Fold each of these.
Amino acid sequence: MAPRTLLDKLWDAHQVTAETPDTPAILYVDLHLVHEVTSPQAFSELRARGLRVRRPARTLATLDHSTPTLPADAAGSLPFVTPAAAAQVDMLRGNCREFGIELLDLAHAQRGIVHVIGPELGATRPGMTIVCGDSHTSTHGAFGALAFGIGTSEVGHVLASQCLLQRKPRAMAIEVRGHLPPGVTAKDLVLHIIGNIGVDGGTGCVIEYRGEAIRALSMDERMTVCNMSIEAGARAGMIAPDEVTFAWLHGRPRAPQGAAWERAVAHWETLRSDPDARFERSVSIDAGAIRPTLSYGTHPGMVLDIDAVVPTATDAQTQRALDYMGLRAGSRLAGTPVDVVFVGSCTNGRLSDLRAAAAVLRGRRVAGSVRMLVVPGSAAVKRAAEQEGLDAVFRAAGAEWREPGCSMCIAMNGDLVAPGQLAVSTSNRNFEGRQGPGARTVLASPASAAAAAVAGHIADPRAYLVEEAVA
Amino acid sequence: MNPIRQLHARSVVLAHENIDTDRIIPARFLTTTTRSGLGRHAFQDWRYRSDGTPDPAFVLNQPEAQGCEILVAGRNFGCGSSREHAPWALLDAGLRVVISSEIADIFRSNALKNGLLAITVDAAAHRYLLRHPGIELRIDVVAGHITLPDGGRFGFALDAFARHCLIAGIDQLGFLLREDAAIRHYEEQHAA
């Protein structure tokens, strides 16, 4: 057999029927994650056609996008931003009851952002096909799964048939050589990659991240990298599973146990690109050259090293982005005043992200001019953080410690950045208005975000980490 | 879905590159539970000033844009979020076609499933269309070309299956459900 990429192997294993010039492949879906925002119309479609959910056991629902991150009031009422948001949440509850789907509801101990809880539960595993009506489904590719976002029509397709009509994407390799320097994180790496290949650099492709620097990443870090594949336009990102993956999954509630675990690992070990497998495009990145990286414009490909100056706009659109951001060509990004700092999201809302932010904040205060919001990615992350006392660190520093959810990343639950304010955010998108009408977003790692909170302006996180090490 | 074989309409141009789906329909309008009524919020934060009045500088607010059903957009249109609310909003706002040199994967897939003709043209055709807003275009989905007012023609790219579904009015869910035997067979082969 010809050498195959990891994508080839996953694709071949899930083809119900192969594609032809006239028809796409029918691809079987192992796990379908559902949330309240992109599913109501799909369930309505099923109801209108008298269809049932084909495989309820392969479907898992949660509530994350439009849910409040403030706790219930004394009367037990949750502060939904609008009656429509509350109604949407109720609709998912009703749909799950009607169609027999498991829902991790707001009070559930395992609830959280859909891309945080899938892996936490061990529901996300190597070799699976995973879809969700959410573009950051690419996160799950960190486990060697083929995971991608779909639209609501396709949510209906999967509910009704457990399958999707898909053309096979092209395989693209991003090889990250060497080692990330101290104080440089997975978020800096992925922002650097998007800056390098562009916001459409991965269009039509599945990116396989490879190389020494990728192998050295923890699972949390691998999830951060795969999560932002979509910001380079890619259908999905993936990393071949290895001992790090297996150790992380072992003992998770929905991971196989006992002899089934041994069999699963033996299979998972085969899930890697063959040595001579051909990629349609390959990019090589030197990890050692990467610095703390932040976005400065209005898409995730407009990024700069922390110590770089804002470049001169060479076209009207770049100038518009600089005007929107209130940045001047030739000025340094570091030192730009900050109004809001957000730590959270499916990109950087896991325990290690909160630890990284807390490491900078411990014994320090959030600047008086800054509002800082820390939103754990799941109920489990929240509990673990509280057991370690991270919540106390954040509260003592003057940050708000919230309930889990997407929160200020998508800003549809009332957690907003006010017009004109500048937010340093650990989320994934800095589009105009993403965090609220007129809001300005600088994407950054949790350490960079925490450094900005303390300094009151964009600051090099390494300065804070050095002090930490010396102390 | 109604079959779409030919379309004849005027174009409106949004030359910006990387127009993302947050720009097309901001997230705060995604709490809807139906597909309808999103057109009034299409490009909301571009179309309206902070006081809620239409911004006359925005191209879709200009009198000559009224009735245009073809949007010619800069490269990488529809990037970002997978929200199908983006094509729903554009269709509800009266658009029927999006033309660019590159269209983001998920947006294109979503658009075509709703009968919003999302097609790509080569760089030369794209440049021409960007520089000539307001012209009447005849789009032949069957033949795969765009005819200009002067009779000139540009070909466009469209996946064969998507084209077939559009011109025959085939609904893709119906197509999938007819493959039940193959899906059942796959499940039997892969039963754990």
Note: The beta strands of chain B are 6-14, 70-73, 97-100, 117-120, 136-140, 145-147, 153-155.
Amino acid sequence: MSVEQLYQDIILDHYKQRHHAGLRDPYDAQVSHVNPSCGDEIMLRVALDGDRVTDVSYEAVGCSISQASTSVMSDLVIGKTVTEGLALAAEFSDMMHSQGEWEPNEDTLEDAVAFIGVAKFPARVKCALLGWSAWKDAVARATAKEES
Amino acid sequence: MSDRYDVDRVRADFPVLARTINGYPLTYLDSANTSLKPRPVVDAMSDHYLFHNANVARAMHTLGAEATAGYEGGRAKVAAFIGAATPEEIVFTKNASEALNLAANTLGAGLGVGDEIVITVMEHHSNIVPWQLVAERTGATLRWFDITDDFVLDLDKARAENLINERTKVVSFTFVSNVLGTVNPVNELSAWAHSVGARVVVDASQAVPTLDVGPISDLGADLVAFTGHKMLGPTGVGVLWGRADVLASLPPFLGGGEMIAVVEMTGSTYAEPPYRFEAGTPPIAEVVGLGAACDYLTAVGRSAITAHEADITGYALDGLRALEGIRILGPSATIDGLAVNRGGAVAFTVETADGLDVHPHDVMTMLDSRGVAVRGGHHCARPLHRRLGVTASTRLSPYLYSTRAEVDRLIEALTWTRDFFGGKR
């Protein structure tokens, strides 16, 4: 497994130009997640319109993998329903835990398929999942708020 | 000096150095994280487990006597290694963190509202969090030394703030920073703290492996913590040295077997130090291993190890300074190629030609693909990184088995990493 396979151009491009970065109003839930072992940190906001994800915005510090993954995640989930977004989160998580033994579906995961190489670096899997974990948490809180 | 110091002979005792990682020879520059282990240390532990294993102190048979002799022999070796007055000044814990927690909890027992604890912004989390917990519990106030732009403690600012004053009850600081490599003026700080009647605790985790710190009481500190696994010993054993009268004045920390004199259901009396602080079955094999590590370091020669580390560290500092995009976080001056009055830990950041900060975890992954092991992250010193205006850094740390050729491999891999992220793939 070479680092060239790990750091695909898609990942480096998203790292250098992060989509939907910065915190925006309005939002329905805001969460802060950290990866205590490495110090990666993210503050993330989710805005919902009924079941539809209308915005994901964030401020984050961290490695190229965590930053690029958050950028790709925001591209994927904005405009989708919560159910669709959670299904994507599950699919991405399955791919990341596959140790690279996985045929990624480009139709659903789009740019996120580039992270298949990360799955072969066990120490870096948690980097790729940080943004997704924060998003799932934020959606859960936003949904709970709506129901209460 | 490299011609006098036979690094190849030392390296022959570390079988892991013959390994290749991802097709490259292992370049282990992560010794401030944990050191490699030489065969004699592992052999001593293996011999203990296979032929002398028993519990200590309470087993009245031959093996029990041998295990006790091994454990107490380890205590005597550690005492001699740091120049302690007696072996009874050595308390074994499970690591330096536990040693510092022992210090914080026992010294903290007498604290209350209005009392002040002083630490520094360059501490490892293990010398921050125990004091935060004590401050929370007792109502004492936690204060700290800042650093200057030259990466040393800002003593002038501390004086201006009256940081050490009549309310100060404990001053706790690191001997050698695990990030900056800065060596703190232990004598001066100890004298300052003692002038107001405060107790002095020193985290010597990064100092004892390389510097000849003995006689330990000459530092002027009351309690000194360090760990075994950074000085060729096994994980699972740490040390708290205490001046005999200080240890005698402290209450117990953990309760249990071995630490008592008489137990009644209505109350107990406690053993004398060091046993008062060693509840339960201690890390026997680990202490045997740590004793063997002390023997090994002594046989190689303490001053030779100090000089070798100054040579390798100086060589690394010169190499990194010459590399575009590298910012060293810590004193980086060298004299005749030797590091000056600093530890071997060298932390730095990496920036590409087009201004992109390469994150330490990406640096670490890239270097690992070339067999180079370093640490990336905040090195358990998040407040220090915040103070330096960075979230994380990459850190190299050599030891007695490190070579200039390994530093060359690091520099080459770093150059490749910087250019890879800079778009020159």
Note: The radius of gyration of chain A is 14 Å.
